[in-house]
Design brief:
About 3% of the residues have low confidence. Helix 3 links the parallel strand 3 and strand 4. The longest helix is centred in the C-terminal third of the chain and has 19 residues. This protein is of the alpha/beta class. The relative contact order is 0.07. The protein is globular, with a radius of gyration of 25 Å. It is built from 19 helices and 16 strands.
Amino acid sequence: MIVLATLNARYAHASLGLRSLYANLGELQPAAHIQEFVIGAKTEVIAEKLLASGPRIVGLGVYIWNVAETARLVALLKTISPQTVIVLGGPEVSHETDEQEICRRADYVITGWGDVTFARLCRDILAGKRILTKVHVGEQPPLAELAMPYRHYDDEDIRHRVLYVEASRGCPFKCEFCLSALDKTAWAFPLDAFLDEIASLYARGARQFKFVDRTFNLNVKNSLRILSFFLEKLAQAPQDPVFVHFEVVPDHLPDALKAAIAKFPPATLQFEIGLQTLNPQIQEHISRRTDLALAEANIRWLKQHSQAHLHVDLIAGLPGETLESFGEGFDRLLGWQPDEIQLGVLKRLRGTPIIRHTEAFGMRYNPAPPYNVLATAAVDFSSMQRLSRFSRYWDLLANAGRFRHTLPLVLGAAPFHNFMALSDWLYATTGVTHRLELERLFRLLHAWLTAPSTQARPDMAADEARILDCLHSDYQASGARGRLHFVTEKSQITSVQEPIRRTPNPVRQLRHAYR
C-alpha cells in the first residue's frame, strides 16, 4: 500500500502534485491512494489517519508553507511506525537537502521532478531491492510521456475546491528570487491532449481553473487556443460562467492576445502579473528583464479595454531597494489602476540564486520558514516589520474590494505615505493584523478619518458628511445588514452600489468588476 499525502495551506487548494504522482504510478496505482490535510491540524491525528491503512510507503509533498509541520509529522511517523518507508519530494526538499533535519529522518528524498522517479523508487522498495542512494534526482521525461492528472480530481474537488492545471512547466526567465530561475527553458504539454482533459473536467462541472504555468503568455499560439477554449464555453453557457486564472508577463501582450482577452465578460478572467519592482537598478540586481514602459502600457490597456481582473505583485526587501524607492514604485503602480496590488516580503527559497547578494546587500533572513527577509542594509528590521503589516492591512482594506469609496479618502495624494500612517495607527490601536472583523474595520476607518491629526493634513481632508457617506455606501455594498453606530438616521447616501450577489465566480474578484 502506498499513501500520497501533503498538508495544503487551505482546504480549497487541491494538490496537483499528488495527483500527478498518482497518475504516473502505472501498475501500482490500484495499491495507492491520496490523502490531503490542511496545515494547523494536530500532528497525531494526521499520523493516525496516514497509518490507518497500514501503508508500506508514505510519500509526502513538502513546501515552504508546510515544511515545519511535515517535519514534526515525519518524526512522529518514524517513532510510531519505523518500518513505514517515508519518501519526501517537493521544492522545499529539492535543494540544500543535507542541511535539513526532515531529510535526515526520512528514508528517501526525490529532488526536482518526481512523476517518473517516485514510481520507479516505489517499485524497487516493494520488490525488496537494496537501494543504496538516499537522495534521488528526479528524471525529467518529455511531457508527452507523462500521464495527465486531471481525471483524479474527484467530484468533491470539482464542487468545492480550486482546480490547479498546467499547460506547461518551467520558465525561461532567471529572476533570482524564484526557483524557476534554475530551469533552462519552458516545456509545453501536448495541447490537444491537455484541452481534452480540461474539456472533461468542464463536462463534470468544473468552473474554476487556476493555471500554474509560470509564463502563460509566452507561447502566444498556445495561449490563444486556451483562451478560445474558455470563450467557447462562455458562449455556450453564459449563465454558468467559468473563472480562469493565469500568470502572465506584462511586457508581452501582442494584438492577437488583446483581441481575445477583450472578449471575456466581467469576473471570468484573472491575470497575476509579477512586476516585483519598478526600480530598474533593482531589476538588474535580481536578473529581471521587464520593459517597464511596455508593462505600464499593457496594464493600462487591460484596465481600459478589458474586464480582466488584474492582480499585480510587488516584493519588498529586494537587494538594494530602500523604503523610499519601494514607496515610489507602489505609488507609480497604483496610478496604473490594477484591481489588486499584492505586496509580499522577499523570501529566500532554498536553491535560489538570490543568496549571492547576502553579504553585499546585508540581507538577513529568518532562519525558519518562510525564510522571509528580516532586514537589509537599506531597510532595517523595524521598517521591514512595518512593511509586513502594511501588506496585511492593504489586503484587508484595498485588495478585498470592500472600501471602494472610502479608500481614496485614506490614500489622498501620497498613497504609500498615507496608507503607511494608517497601518502604523491600526497596529498601535489594535495590536493585531488578523482577526479584524468587518464591522470593526469600518469603525476603525471612521475613527482614523475623523481624527484631528488626520484632518489637519490637507491631502487627507474630507468633511465628516462625505466620510460617513463613503463608509455607509461601502458598508451597504458589502452585503452587511447591520447598522454602523456612527451613522445617523439623517445621513444621506449618494453613491450606493448594488450589494454583492451570490454567484459561481469568486466574490473578491466580482467586487472589483464594478469599474
